[in-house]
Specification:
Layout lengths: L1 E7 L3 H12 L4 E4 L4 H6 L5 E3 H9 L4 H6 L1 E3 L1 E6 L2 E6 H5 L3 E3 L2 H14 L4 E2 L3 E6 L7 E5 L5 E11 L7 H4 L6 E16 L9 E3 L6 E5 L5 E7 L10 H11 L12 E15 L2 E2 L2 E3 L5 E2 L7 H22 L3 H28 L9 H15 L3 H11 L7
Parallel strand pairs: 1-2, 1-11, 2-8, 5-13, 11-18
Antiparallel strand pairs: 3-7, 4-7, 5-6, 9-10, 10-11, 12-15, 12-16, 13-14, 14-15, 16-19, 17-18
This protein binds flavin-adenine dinucleotide.
The site of flavin-adenine dinucleotide has 36 residues, from helix 1 and helix 9.
């Protein structure tokens, strides 16, 4: 097989890149190691920045998002006895949209399949060969067990944190900065109408809790747990009790409902740079991971491929390499900004383990920070412009 851009991974970054390229008449082939059903059912992010909504709309996949997505103009921050709202529109003139990553993925797969473009599902043994030459290839074994080779002009590594792309870049070229947090998120998807109109981020001595949603019938809720905790330790009753305690507020009740999905996700910040080696370009989780507190992972993936799509189009159609040469530095600027914001939100909201000798001091610092960010116009604007993505245009 031969294509202009070979793409490894059909998560949001790979699918959106393929669509941005297709709109400009550039061919691509996607190689994905899971089945279409698995990819479409994978529950993950759900808060989309203002600029990311614009990108998806321009890419031709905004119709359902605008019809079914929920626009949120603010967010609630809470600690015992207090729930305060930050108004994004007042603070920075932008909003965010709540629309599941699963839905974005389905929209992108549908448009690709209906355009007759290729996705090789259930590939195994994916490898990128010759990335530092002018003739890179993606090799894999297809769903029928046949070895395949895709000859490419460029390769985009969009295969997430555990994919094959990042390890293709020699360790002597890569540098990694990371922080592993001493807690994890237990997340549930529940068949119950949200008990709130906008997201609630709650600090509590027992640990952080969060109320998000996917639609007006489905809620998404999270609890801070120990990183080595086991989901088997958490019955549905225990989860709902924990959520009710940590988000309790006089005059407000958390409605519970059947749990559709539950899992524990460890939390880390991770950045591997550069995001390019020869003709291989990394995008999304293949290159960086943020803790979910700032709702940035999916948005960063969208921002990366917006830049990469424009850069590859310029190189392929006009022979100009300026944008592919600056892609890594350009993308990393936003990556580091989002990494900082996600780390800051995580540090403000997650109670330190009680074994931490500074725990009492740190907890008081967190409450003081929450009080400040919800009472100072300038501090609220700082949170709002980072949360909505207004701080750096796409
Ligand atoms: C449990 C969980 C919850 C999250 N919650 C949030 C949230 O609330 N807010 C937020 O902003 N972000 C969240 N994130 C992060 C967000 O989902 C990711 O940042 C986003 O999925 C990145 O998209 P991507 O396309 O770069 O990577 P991925 O979505 O990981 O897609 C990579 C694709 O590559 C495929 N692949 C992997 N290896 C190979 C291989 N060797 N060959 C071929 N294909 C391969 C994978 O199957 C996958 O389809 C969450 C992540 C997880 C795991």
């Amino acid at each position: 097989m031969r294509t202009q851009v070979g793409i490894v991974g059909s998560g949001p970054s790979g699918l959106l890149l393929a669509q941005i390229l297709a709109q400009q008449g550039i061919e691509s082939i996607i190689v994905e190691n899971r089945s279409r059903e698995y990819v479409e059912a994978r529950v993950r992010a759900g808060v989309i920045e203002h600029g990311a909504v614009d990108v998806l709309t321009r890419a031709g996949v905004g119709d359902r998002l605008h019809r079914e997505g929920l626009r949120h103009d603010g967010v609630h921050l809470q600690w015992p006895g207090e729930r305060r709202r930050i108004d994004f529109v007042d603070a920075c003139g932008q909003s965010v949209w709540v629309y599941g990553q699963t839905e974005i993925t389905k929209d992108l797969i549908n448009i690709r399949v209906s355009d007759g473009q290729q996705i090789h599902w259930e590939a195994s043994d994916t490898a990128i060969v010759g990335a530092d030459t002018d003739h890179p290839q993606i090799t894999f074994v297809d769903v029928d067990g046949k070895p395949q080779t895709v000859e490419c002009d460029y390769v985009a590594g969009c295969d997430g944190f555990h994919g094959a792309s990042r390890p293709t870049i020699p360790e002597s070229v890569r540098s990694v900065a990371q922080r592993v947090y001493p807690f994890a998120w237990l997340g549930i998807l529940a068949e119950v109408a949200p008990s709130t109109d906008e997201l609630i981020y709650a600090w509590h001595p027992d640990g952080f809790a969060m109320h998000s949603m996917r639609s007006d019938k489905v809620s998404r809720l999270y609890l801070q747990v120990a990183p080595d905790d086991d989901i088997a330790n958490w019955s549905d009753d225990r989860i709902w009790d924990g959520l009710s305690t940590r988000m309790a507020l006089d005059g407000w009740t958390l409605q519970s409902g059947p749990t559709l999905e539950k899992s524990i996700t460890p939390m880390r910040s991770f950045v591997s740079s550069p995001m390019r080696w020869g003709r291989l370009f990394l995008a999304g989780d293949a290159s960086h991971i943020v803790p979910p507190t700032g709702a940035k992972g999916l948005n960063l993936a969208i921002a990366d491929v917006t830049k990469l799509g424009a850069a590859l189009a310029m190189a392929i159609q006009q022979g100009k390499v300026d944008l592919i040469d600056s892609y890594s530095d350009d993308a990393l600027r936003r990556v580091w900004q989002s990494t900082h914001f996600s780390w800051w939100m995580t540090s403000m909201l997650h109670t330190p383990p009680s074994a931490d000798p500074d725990a009492a001091f740190l907890r008081q610092m967190q409450i003081t920070q929450l009080d400040y960010v919800t009472s100072s116009t300038a501090a609220a604007a700082g949170l709002a412009e980072n949360y909505t993505g207004a701080v750096l245009p796409y």
